């Protein structure tokens, strides 16, 4: 017999942590829990409505002993070992107790759930006894599921945080992209973001840098560009972590009236520098269609990060935020003959590379409450 589903909405339960202890066999080893009782065992567990920090859970049970159930015990474990867990807070128990409520129920908690992370889960039913201890059922089967990416609601929260620190806008005229010399000059099939003939730069899948819940990591294809300038010169800096050779292209060739602008991420890497990731996608392109569904759109002429404004004479002027480092993904191929390649004179600061860089989960400036 199945648990009684809620006809209107799923109850959201407040989960209280028990003493963390490894589950052995089918009996619970937590203190305050008595012998295994003849209570119904949860069967055919269903996980639905998965978000980055919540899910709904339901199961079926025999009718025998159901009226005695007062609590559910949920054993939730990240599939990786704890040493590999870079996003979950330390010393947070994964064995949880909730009062018995109609099923399905919503399990919600950013302090023990991380976005796009695989978990295993098992459930016990329990009854609280007069002495304060619990009698419990056998453990259910173990099932696995994966939490979701950030939704547009979560990304909008990140966007609002980024707006606070963006600072004033400075003018710029070019986008630029640094690489090693061979990338620009040697025909080769080794570069995934360039064709074999060394004539075009090709979109490549974005790495896992930035927020762990980013919906574009590992999915969106594009080319990374920069546009930040030095305050005292108004020109691009002469240092770069990505290589001593720089491709420069006039800003209006990538960002114009036919280009849509999206907010992608806001993060830092255990430093005082903060990064804002933006996406430039030509109207109607594959990247534009993808971003429309999952990313907050920005007004190209009126936003605090990257603007394109039409002047009285019809020309376009461009500005970038001063107090954040902008990473701009352009979603289409770019011909190398549309720009110039020159060698920069500064240092190659590899420590500032954001390739697969993980976000600092403790930073109060760039984190939101829905996981890290």
Q: Can you offer a commentary on this structure?
A:
This protein is mainly beta. The chain is 8% helix and 33% strand. The protein has 3 helices and 25 strands. Strands 2, 3, 6, 7, 9, 10 and 11 form a 7-stranded mixed beta sheet that branches. Strands 15-16-23-19-18-20 form a 6-stranded mixed beta sheet. A 4-stranded mixed beta sheet has the order 1-8-5-4, with no helix packed on it. The protein is elongated. The two termini are 39 Å apart. The model is unreliable at 1-8, 14-32 and 81-93 (pLDDT under 50).
Spell out the key features of this protein:
6-stranded mixed beta sheet; 372 residues; 33% strand; 7-stranded mixed beta sheet; mainly beta; disordered N terminus
Strand content: 25-35%
Approximate helicity band: under 10%
Low-pLDDT residue intervals, each spanning 5 or more residues:
1-8, 14-32, 81-93
Largest sheet: 7 strands, mixed
In one word, what is the shape? elongated
Could you give the order of the helices and strands?
A: EEEEEEEEEEEHEEHEEEEEEHEEEEEE
Number of strands: 25
Structural class: mainly beta
Number of helical stretches of at least 4 residues: 3
Distance N to C terminus: 39 Å
Radius of gyration: 26 Å
What number is the mean pLDDT?
85
């Amino acid at each position: 017999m199945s648990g009684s589903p809620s006809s209107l909405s799923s109850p959201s339960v407040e989960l209280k942590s028990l003493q963390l202890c490894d589950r052995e066999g089918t009996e619970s080893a937590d203190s305050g829990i008595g012998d295994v009782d003849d209570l119904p065992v949860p069967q055919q567990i269903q996980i639905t409505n998965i978000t980055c920090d919540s899910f709904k859970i339901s199961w079926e049970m025999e009718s025998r002993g159901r009226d005695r159930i007062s609590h559910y015990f949920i054993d939730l474990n990240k599939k990786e070992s704890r040493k590999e867990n870079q996003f979950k807070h330390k010393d947070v128990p994964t064995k949880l107790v909730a009062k018995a409520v109609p099923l399905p129920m919503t399990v919600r908690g950013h302090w023990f759930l991380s976005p796009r992370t695989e978990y295993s889960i098992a459930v016990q039913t329990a009854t609280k006894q007069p002495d304060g201890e619990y009698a419990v059922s056998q453990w259910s089967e173990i099932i696995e599921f994966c939490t979701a990416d950030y939704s547009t609601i979560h990304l909008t929260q990140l966007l609002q945080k980024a707006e606070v620190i963006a600072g004033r806008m400075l003018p710029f005229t070019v986008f630029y992209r640094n690489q090693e010399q061979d990338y620009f000059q040697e025909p080769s099939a080794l570069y995934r973001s360039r064709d074999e003939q060394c004539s075009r730069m090709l979109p490549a899948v974005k790495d896992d840098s930035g927020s762990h819940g980013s919906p574009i990591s590992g999915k969106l294809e594009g080319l990374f560009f920069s546009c930040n300038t030095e305050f005292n010169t108004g020109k691009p800096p002469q240092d770069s972590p990505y290589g001593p050779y720089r491709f420069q292209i006039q800003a209006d060739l990538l960002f114009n009236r036919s280009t849509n602008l999206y907010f992608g991420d806001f993060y830092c890497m255990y430093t005082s520098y903060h990064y804002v990731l933006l996406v430039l996608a030509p109207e109607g392109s594959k990247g534009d269609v993808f971003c429309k569904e999952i990313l907050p759109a920005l007004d190209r002429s009126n936003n605090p990060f990257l603007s394109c404004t039409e002047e009285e004479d019809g020309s376009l002027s461009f500005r970038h935020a001063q107090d954040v480092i902008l990473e701009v993904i352009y979603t289409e191929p770019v011909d190398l003959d549309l720009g110039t390649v020159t060698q920069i004179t500064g240092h190659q600061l590899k420590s500032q590379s954001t390739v697969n860089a993980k976000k600092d989960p403790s930073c109060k400036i760039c984190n939101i409450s829905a996981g890290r």
